[in-house]
Amino acid sequence: MPPSRARATTALALLLLATTACTDGEHESTPASRSPSVSEQLRLPLDAYASTVAETHLVEDAQDLLMRRCMNGLDMEWKTLPPVDPQDAKPPNLRRYGADEAAAVRYGYHPSPDPPSVVRRNRAWDERDALPAEVQRAAYGPSGKGGCLKTAQHQLAGDTAPPDDHAFNQLTGTALETSRRTPEVRNALRSWHTCMAKAGYDYRDPYAAAGSERWETAEITPAERATARADVTCQKSTQLVKVWAAAETHVQHRLIQQNTDRLHEAKARKDRWLAAARRVLRREGRTSHQHHLSDQ
CA triplet 278, 283, 287: central angle to 5 degrees? Predict the structure, then answer.
């Protein structure tokens, strides 16, 4: 089987699976006609230790070129993945503390639709899932980790293990839950609850609002959109995102100090793979996006 396709990692996805506001991949780009929302601009200290969507795509692109060479050597065709436009990459902390203002106005709590470049890449992954068994075995081996994939990974980074976000995932989840229990965030959440109650809504917190079973519908309902708009209005009036981000930044700095060696090793491994991927793409005389053009 093919390896897992790239997914942006968010603590919201890890810890709050009931929240339907969370997407499992990229999201629509920010139109040039409006300013990015607060959560779109949100950056936290631990972000430095995780692979971004763009970085994951870069490694995939270089690996794909090496896999194509290997597959061609076996007289088999290998179509490389189409690129994702840089502006279509999902911000790392979107909806970390609840609904995002820009998305809520248009889509309520439903995931915003993937932009065309993301759709194309996902479709290409789906096509790989449907490759003939003979091609699958050549590409991935019986285990899903062998074949030309293993060859390409060794050519790319030698004995360096692939990037692993386990440390980041664990610590960012801890940071979110720890910051949620701080006095300042608890106060902000109470203010948010009061604001929502005045608007006629009774939800414990933004996650409960976004994760309501009422929104498990094929289409966005007027009630959902109205609730989401009230939600983000209350987030703004209580400065919930600003307060929570400040509290979590403090927590994350402490966790980084407590886990320096573990995080530095994870980052060093990621950086080695990125450097190797850039060398492969430079050697081919193409950027991470240009090398797809001959495959269209």
Answer: 55
